[in-house]
TrEMBL record:
Lineage: Bacteria, Pseudomonadati, Pseudomonadota, Alphaproteobacteria, Rhodobacterales
Domain UspA residue range list: 2-130
Protein species of origin: Limimaricola cinnabarinus LL-001
Pfam hit, one: Usp
Signal peptide: none
Name assigned to this protein: Universal stress protein
Protein family membership: Belongs to the universal stress protein A family.
Length: 276
């Protein structure tokens, strides 16, 4: 990764997301850019004062980050007039990842979280990490929802950059499949179910192409993706869910990101990556 952008409203949740982004930037040798936009209209006589205040907040975060990760980590910032400028900032800085928190401001005026996060989950042109966890704790177990296509293949290296120490479990949700679980490499293990038997070679090819080992856990599930994801998070202490594939949010309604069961890494659709 070259550039990571972290959007914050300087709330506790927003700043925790910035610190998570800093952790990722530090171990990927990326630069970090902090993005802020005013969540309310300001009287003209307060604009310059507010700008100085925001600059101070960014300087404080920069000092905290560089104290933790060293002065070599480059930290810059943007104070925008409105949240929609995030798209231009992503493009101008050629960002590889956007990190936000799910916090909803108590006065309902928050610009970055809640509805902003839902919008980004649908049309962000780069992978979007919605972070709720302690930024000092590395991810240990990730559930990657995949469709076994090229978009899912290209997502796995990004997932590994975001979470280099994580154990990855692959989950394919198919409404036509009876729920079952197996491990690639076990005798007969390539056949997940009778319905998915014709995907066995695709599963093996996917595993090999992305460099996953023979013990990678494969879950085939039926039903509501949100329920299946929550079940895995609760039963196996998953701390990062990656939504990948041609339609990453397929079956997962946008409001799922408002109260995620753990950190979410949402990959962009082809249309979001290459807008018309």
């Amino acid at each position: 990764m070259n550039t990571i952008i972290a959007a914050t409203d300087f709330s506790t949740a927003g700043n925790r997301a910035v610190l998570r982004a800093a952790y990722i930037a530090a171990h990927t040798d990326a630069r970090l850019h902090i993005f802020h936009a005013a969540s309310m209209r300001l009287p003209l006589d307060q604009v310059s004062h507010f700008a100085v205040l925001i600059e101070g907040y960014i300087d404080t975060l920069r000092a905290q980050i560089q104290c933790r990760h060293g002065p070599a980590l480059e930290v810059t910032g943007t104070d925008a007039a409105e949240w929609q400028e995030i798209y231009e900032v992503i493009d101008r800085h050629r960002a590889d990842l956007l990190v936000v928190g799910p916090h909803v401001h108590p006065n309902g005026l928050d610009a970055f979280h809640g509805t902003f996060v839902e919008r980004l989950a649908a049309d962000c042109p780069v992978p979007l990490l919605i972070s709720t966890s302690d930024p000092a704790m590395p991810y240990r177990l990730s559930l990657a929802c995949v469709d076994l296509g090229p978009e899912s293949e290209s997502a796995i290296p990004v997932l590994r950059n975001v979470a280099p120490e994580v154990e990855i479990t692959l989950m394919r949700i198919d409404l036509q499949t009876a729920e079952s679980t197996t491990r690639c490499g076990e005798p007969g293990g390539e056949v997940i179910s009778a319905t998915l038997e014709d995907t066995a070679q695709a599963v093996a090819r996917f595993r090999d192409q992305v460099g996953l080992d023979a013990q990678t856990r494969i879950i085939a599930a039926q039903g509501d993706p949100r329920a299946r994801i929550r079940e895995q998070v609760a039963s196996r202490a998953v701390d990062l869910v990656a939504l990948t594939g041609a339609d990453p949010m397929g079956g997962v309604q946008a409001n799922f990101v408002k109260a995620p069961p753990c950190d979410l890494l949402v990959f962009p659709t082809a249309r979001a990556r290459h807008p018309a």
